[in-house]
Structure formats: structure tokens, C-alpha cells
Amino acid sequence: MKHTRRNLFITCAILLTIATLLIGCSAPAPAPTTSAPAATTTQAPATSKPATTAPATTAPATTAVPTTTAAPTTTAAPIKITLKYTTAEPDNSYGQAQAVIPALNAIEQRSGGRVTIQRSWAGSLLKANEEYEGIMNGVADIGRTMLYTQSNLYQITSLGMLPYAAKDPVNVYKAITDVINKGYAADDLKGLHLFTSTGTTSYCFLFRIQQPMTLDAMKGIKVRNPGGYMGAALSALGMTPVTLTPAEITDALSKNTIESVYWMRSSFVDYKTYEMGKFLLNFDANVFSTVVVLMNDKQWSSLPKDLQQIFTEELSKLQSSNPSAFAAGDKNAIDVMTKAGIKTYDWPQAEIDKARAAVLPTWNTAVEDMNKRGMNGKQVMTDFTAALQKYGENPPWKP
Questions:
Q1: pTM of the model
Q2: CB–CB of 206/264 below 8 Å?
């Protein structure tokens, strides 16, 4: 019995010792719980991952940039420019209807609505002899302008009226523009921007009764004088020039005040002058050339570069489109006059050569006129004829 109790005591002691050891060994078990912050720390990268993906959340902001770049569209709204065009001609004249109006329309269209050109016709804003100074002073902004002011600019453009300068009128206007761009008329262009020189098609003779077939047969015939060097050329041919306005021509023919008219073919029909004639001589020695396309320089300088380019391209076309418009009118006029029984004829080359020699003094007169204006007449004429030759022409004057 004693032995049994002893064994039981020993057994209980052993169990108590084991329990104590077990309790001591299990004490660290909460450590993992206290290490939870470490787990929180290890989760930090997980919470930082959204931070690394933050660009994804900012990406929409990046794609939203176009919305902010649209702002310049609001701040850089297209400018609106209104300019005034002036001419002494009606809007249905050949040069205006078929050359100028298409050019002005093209400028407005190509500007994308930035430019509007107000148009004044038939001298409603400026009379013909007011256009040059009116554009310079800003009364108008643009004009296809006939020059009346006696100036170096007028003098140079009038060289195109010299007889037999060119077979193709466009080459006359190219040459005049080249000479102007050399600076000979710089003072006359202060306050102005020049686009080009231009003018009409060549002139021919309408005779009331006669049909002169030779240069000698022209002597003494009274002819309407268009002005400028054309009057001097008619005198050199032996004719008698008479100065008349277009409105006076028909009456003068009916009263035999004149026997012939030197003019464009289309003008004979426009003014019904052909009704008084019988013969049409294709002379084609002169053009009306004192016409330039100008813009007020202050307005020109204020234009953005791209609009300047558009204006230059479209208005420079008038150099050829203006005479081309008159040429179309001439063609129609020939049809009308032919149906009316008017006989059209040409001179043989031998008579043309005689006429070219007869009118040469007119070229020398032009040289003297330029000298009187303080220019080097011979040099200017040399430049003018050189330009004509460059474009394939054979003017009678030689340096």
C-alpha cells in the first residue's frame, strides 16, 4: 500500500513537472500574435502596389490633355478682316467680271472666312483719277487702278503703249512689272504695295469708209486718239489723231469728224461703234498698259503671312487674266461684227515692217520723257526691252 502511494506521488510529481514544462513551452505561442505588426509591414508593399499603379489612375488625366489643348482654339479665334475694293468700272465689264471678281472670291474662300472684301463699282467710292491716291491714303484698300497721275510709276507703265512692244500683251505686263521691281518708281509706291501691272488686249482699226492696204494709204486719215504713246504712234504713221471720249466717238463718226477708231474689238461692240464702220484692220501694235493692282501698304503689312501669300497668288493672276478676259470679249465682238457685214483684214508683212520703222521715234521720245523725270531713260528702256526679249518678244528699239 505504501509502495502504491509512493508510486502515485511520484507519478503526480512527474505529471506536474511535465505540465509545467508544457506551460513554459506554450508561452511563446502568442509571439506570432505580437508579430502581426510584421504582417502589417509586409502588407505595406501590397498597399504600395496601388501607388505603383497610380499612373494608371493618372492616365485619364493624361488623355484629358487634349481638352486643355482645345483652349487655344478659343483664345486664337480667327481674325476678321474687312477690306474695301474700288474700281471705276462696272462689275459686268470684262476685266472685272472675268478676272477681278473671281480673284476676290478666291481670296475670301481661301482665307477660311477671315477676309471679307467689300466691293465698290463704277466709281461709287473713288473716281478713276482718284484711285491711286485714294488707296495710298486708305480711302480704299485694294484696287485694279488706272494711273492718271504723272509720276515715274505712270511713266514706266506707259512704256507698254509703245508700238510693237510685244505680240502677246501679257509679256508687256510681265516686263513692266520687272522694271518697276527694279526700284525705278520706289518713291511713287510709298504707302502702297504693288502686286502686278496689267492692261488690255491689243488695239485694231475700224474704218468708216476706207480700206487702207499700205502705210502710205494711212496718211491724213482722222483717227480717234486713245492717248499716251498711242497718239504719238498714230502721228508717226501719218494719221491725224483726234482726242475724244468713248461717248463722243459714234457721233464723231457720223459727222465725219473722224474716219477711223483705234480701239479694242470688244469696245467697238460695247459702244456700238461698229454700226458706223465697214472695215476692220488687225493692226495689234499697241495695248493700254497704265493699269496696276495695288493695296494700301499699312493694310498689307498688317496681314498674317499666310494671307499675304494668298493675296499675292490671287491678285498676281490679274497680270494675265485681265487681258485674257478682254480677249474673250474680242472674240465675241469679231463674231458680232462679222455677222453685221464688217470685213476683217490684215496687212502683208512688208507693210508691217514699214510701220515698225516709222514708229521707232516714239520709243526715243519715251527715253527723253524719262530723262526729263530724272530717270536714266536709256537704262530704263534697256531694262524694259531686255525683259521683253526674255519673254520671247522683238521690240523695235535697240540700246
A1: 0.80
A2: no
